[in-house]
Amino acid sequence: MLKTNTLFTFSSLLLLTFSGFSVSKEAIAQSSNKFNRQQCIQNLVKDGLKSEDASVWCNYNEQCLVRSQKEGLHAEAAKSVCDCTIKTFRNKYTTQKFREITKKSETDKKIANQLREVGEICFEEILFE
To answer: Rounded to two decimals, what is the model's pTM?
Structure first.
C-alpha cells in the first residue's frame, strides 16, 4: 500500500527538480555513478534532438535520479520514475516549452501542481507494477 508521506516526499522531490533546483556535482557523482551523461546526450541526438536540447533532458534526468535516490528510491526504481517523467514531458512539450513551464512552476502553484501530477502518476505506475 502506498504511504501518503512517501508520495508527498516524492512529489516534493519532483517539484524541486522541475523548478531547476540544481544539485551539486559531488551529489551527482555519489548518487548517480552509473549515469553516463555523454551517452545520454548521444542517445537523444540519435533520436533527433539537437545537442543543446539533449543536454537539457539529460540534466533533468541526472538531477531526478540523484533526488529520487536521496529520497530513498532504489536506483532501478528511480531510473524507471525518471524515465517515465521524461517520456511524458517530451511527448507533451518541446524542450523550450519545458524550460518555460519549469521556470514558471517556481512561482505558479497551479503549474507546479500539474508538473507534480506527472511525477506522481509515474511513481504510482512504478510502485504498483
So the answer is: 0.71
